Amino acid sequence: MSYASPVILSFDKASFAFNDGKRVILNEANFSIRENTKITIMGQNGAGKSTMFKIIMGELKLQSGKMNLVPGKTVAIARQVIPRDQMHLTVKEYFATAFKNPDNKLEKKITEVLDEVNLVAPLDKTLKQFSGGQQARLLLAHALIQEPDILLLDEPTNNLDTAGINHLISFILGYEKTVVVISHDADFLNMFTDGVLYLNVQRQNVEQYWGNYYDVVEQIAAQIERERQQNARMEKEIQDSKDKINFFSNKGGKMRKLASKLRDDVAEAEENKVSVRKDDKTIPKFTIEFPNLIGPIVQINSLSLMSPLTHEVVHVPFSLTVKKHQRYILKWPNGIGKSTLLKRLTSGEDTDAVISPEVSIGYYSQDFDALDMNQTVWDSLHSATSECTDQDVYKVAAQFLLIGDLLKNPVHALSEGQKGLLCYARFVLQKPHLLILDEPTNHINFRHLPVIAEALNDYEGGMIMVSHDDVFVEKIQNLDEIDLKRLLDI
Question: Structural domains in the chain?
């Protein structure tokens, strides 16, 4: 990558806001992206990272300023999730949506691009039949089949197992065009990042840095510290001037004039103080309470899984009683129905398991389909339990950075990261007997993960988890592994 490579995309005094200007994302922002670079977009949950992608894709329009894309250059995006209204499409129908006009070489192109993302997918299979990890590969393939000059990747590691992430890293490193990535996986980003665009939510602008991801994080931290020190010096000088003003104001003649001049100097100094950028906020420590329950929480008698060899559902005899303090993780790569298994277990429709009626289940779904997207955030929190007051809701919402107008917004208007925090906020209010966690780190800012791991370690109820985030899983204590590969005798 050459820093002298030509600019392929730039924003010039770009401004964008939601809610008639009440929520500003960009305020006369200026930045550029050079050809054949690998760029990461950073910022707090809700800072507007996915909004930036929508602007680049032309789905949202700037209110003022310009976005300049070099004529003839194309853009495609691998989104975070497949839209729900497309889940009924077959693989072939889904890829057809990538083109404005019918393509008589479509099947050949699909075969080639699926091979590129290391996925076997029958053309007549519907999207909803694929696992979350397989859907992530389909999303990437849908963008790649368009052969874009700029490839946008929005949280591409979500739902991918270790092999999938390693394949994705190799792909990005070998991709000879421009790639712009949003991700909360720091180790993943550090493998390929040439530079960072930081969305400063406080100043509503975009700061540009060059270097690998960890170098940039250090640069930002050092800049914040310099700004804090500068302000500390200025605040001391301002206070000294104020003390002099108070002393001179009680004197007459020239002393009073000097006090007047000092007031002007103080006013100017106050205006010149640096607006210290707040780094990503981290949620404070929280507790998920367990209302004591006598006896087993859930009794599992068998597991229904998808055989990776025959692609048919098989029922595997398996006896497991989950009690208080017991926690399990289902292990095996994408595609054998782990998410489907957890979803059936949560719904109470699984004939392979017995859950007593008094058991309350807290469910983190990898695609958040357990949340009512049309509820307001306030109503979603209140509906977690009938035993919480308005004060409880306000307190817990603030803990998870869901404050102000966010509480009035519908859930679907939240960023994916904010939806994840909403799930944990609901657990705190709900006080479940059993936590069923399907990729519980999906979309979550890496700064929050140690806090969440600590809360799960302190939780006294039962837990069943699926996660491909090995670093996070290592933080969870007393986690017993259920090897689905062995159960399927593969």
Answer: 7-217 (3.40.50.300), 298-487 (3.40.50.300)
